[in-house]
Amino acid sequence: MTAHVAEATRTLAPAAPRRRLRRVLLVIAMIVVLALIAGGAFALWTVRRPLPQTGGEARLAGLDGAVRVVRDAHGIPQIYASTAEDLFRAQGYVHAQDRFFEMDYRRHVTAGRLAELVGENADAIKADKVVRTLGWRRVAQVEWDTVLSPTTKAYLQAYADGVNAYLKDRKPSQIALEYTVLGTTVRVDAPQKWDPVDSVAWLKAMAWDLRGNYHTELGRALAYTTIKDVARVNELFPAYPSSQNAPILSPRDLTNTADDGAAAPLSKDGVDLASPAVSRALSATAGALGAVPVLIGKDDGVGSNSWVVAGRYTTTGRPLLANDPHLDFSAPSVWVQGGLHCTDVGPACPFDVAGFSFAGFPGIIIGHNAKLAWGVTNMYADVTDFFIERVREDTYLRGADWEPMTTRRETIHVNGGDDVHLEVVSTMHGPIISDVLDDVEPVVESPTEGPKLGEFAVALGWTALTPGYTADAVFMLNTAADADDVRAAAEKFEVPAQNIVFATTDGHIGYQAPGAIPIRQNVPGAPVPSDGTWPRPGWDERYDWTGYVSSDRMPRALDPAEGFIVAANQAVLPASSEPFLSRDWDYGYRAQRIRTLIEERIAAGKKFSVATMNTIQNDDVSPYAAILVPALLDQRLPDAFSAAGQRLLADWDYHMEEDSAAAAYFAAVWRNLLRITFWDDLPAAYRPQGNSQWLAVIQNLLGKEHDAFWDNRETVSVVESRDEVLTQALVLARRDLTVRLGKKPSDWRWGALHRLAPKHPVLGGDTIPGVVSNYFNPDAVGVPGSGSLVNAMSWDASTNSFEVTAGPALRMVVDLADLDNSTWLIPLGVSGHPASTHYTDQYSAFTAGRTFAWPYSASAVAAAQDKELRLRP
């Protein structure tokens, strides 16, 4: 499966042979029809038919009064209405105009109904099985029925009404070109009405992609299956380097105390993570959950930068706030820009907010209002645990008793195929996730000889599977005016757990940690801790969660003495000072680079401006290079050919610039270094992707010339040392780039390897006919940056590619002295229609590191106006 779900639309790989000829004929039809995209009046009409009306007047049933939708030259809508419900009704209408297929795709994924949309495909069905097992939409339905406030429900219903008003009487081909393409291979009916629960379910997808230490917990378990030594596994997951990379806050910054929830070590108590049964259960878990389509980001690519600087250090005397969340790149972009403005702001209609939203959910997720700006970054809080359950038939072991598991039946409807039936099994800890795939052989078997006491399965405990109030929190943030308001919203913002940095127009800056964080019991024992970093024995009640860290214990700060805050996925506080939030953070090299740039400017007596903040967002200095290059230059290479690559590093300034030969060579060295050092020790499912964790590991290993990890276990009778491995990495990198980029190192360019190529979630795969793929997917562009840099254009070192996998999904800088002086940008454009000029009209600016003016006040919006649509009842 690709980073999205292109493989879920593989039209030449039907599940049943009897359908093969029909599918092939349909593919031919698709190619013939879509070849018309290349030219002709019919083609022009076909591809432009879904483009929305953006000027003049239109009717929107249910409005209380007229609504204005003002768009600028980039098509970004600013909505003006007299009631809050009219604002969200119009936002639903506009989102449907610009992005309905994206919304429809997202709701099919979050409901476990992807096969209904794309047809009979094994990958789509796998995805549906996993999502049904997790029950995203079931939890969202409970939130709608029993949890959310009446006001929030009114806003969600108004949004749904606006979406449905746009859909009414429109054929699929009038809504999105994707339906025309899909219609050549599967049946495409009129889209179902939008339900408010469709919006709530989207929050579960967001929480899933931002779920904290899930991958590192699984990674420890998978590494243990081959290394079989807890101490050596711990070398691969070093403690956060607080003495080198500062946490977000120091204890003196806190405006509250935080001393509960810490966990002590405890015993494995019978869990042999290296046993074949447990190993295969965990491996099945990794494979099954990898089937879930990526909607906003995954694994190493999920991160973010945010920082805020107090007015005493700015050119205006008021704070500046910057934010750039790092998520998956897709076409269209993950985020949508816009503004929501009550014509008379007051208690009855409190919104005057602009920023970034998700198509499919009302309100603004990141942005500012007239009094406060806020940004978010992933807190990496530990909100998931794997519980290894001992099961026997339809029961599981709890202490000395076998308790009944709960089961439910799910039916997955397949477009053009037979229904698929699924039995979902759960324990008190959560759903069993290790056996959700039909095509996986039984992976849990008895781990012991003698009487059969049960088999192993893996259940997932996850805070997002408990109904919560996050939807309420979104609207509370939209109207927040001060630190108390942010704190109140954060108490509701349970999942995903995100760092919130904020600033106010009256000069305050602050930080707030939200989220539902489980408290894990202290059980004294032995080497494997109970702090959520390792899988847990489900049969021992001592390992159960006992509640959540109380909201008044969550770290927060207001106006810290040093006058700035950097929150970029690093540890929130030193480990000795925090409530238990996580042990697994980004290792802070990126955050420390931002902090260093801020401190250097302050020390030089220079003030910060919006342009300064934008410059920092594009910083591409590599902390990897700063740590590794001195050791690499110490190596004596065997010949002049190899040394020609090494010489590039001698006077390199460590900038990962697009035209840099040294950057290209260093990246190739890094990839080879990880492969040589770790591939012989780790299972294929846990090969290093190259994020900050692996930089911390290598940094520690550089001081251990003969550490066991340097030795390649595949070379019999030879024991490699550090210098031999570094030399091999240098030599192999020279050979690799000679093949890829040419014999002369001076001709190499990082951008020739490191390319950004956003993909459509359904029509972006290699199996999609070229005429279709080329139309929906923007051209690849070479870009600067790299993973764990400030300009965090990530790539996956476990593959043979340097292609960008994730990065800044938006960039914003807010000037709290003059909101109209703020800037914003998304990677592609606001429209989801490839025929629109706004599908990619921000792409070239994004790849060049530029941003656009962000009009906010009524006068600024009017001055930037390009078109206006008036919606009437």
The stretches of 5 or more residues where confidence is low (pLDDT under 50) are: 1-26, 258-270, 437-452
What share of residues are in beta strands? 15-25%
Please describe the biggest sheet, giving its number of strands, its sense, and whether it closes into a barrel.
11 strands, mixed
Strand segment tally: 30
Please tell me the overall pLDDT.
89
Specify the structural class.
alpha+beta
Shape: globular
Q: Give the strand line-up of the largest sheet.
A: 1-30-2-3-6-7-8-9-17-18-22
The radius of gyration is 27 Å
The number of distinct helices, counting runs of at least 4 residues, comes to: 26
End-to-end gap: 45 Å
Helical content stands at 25-40%
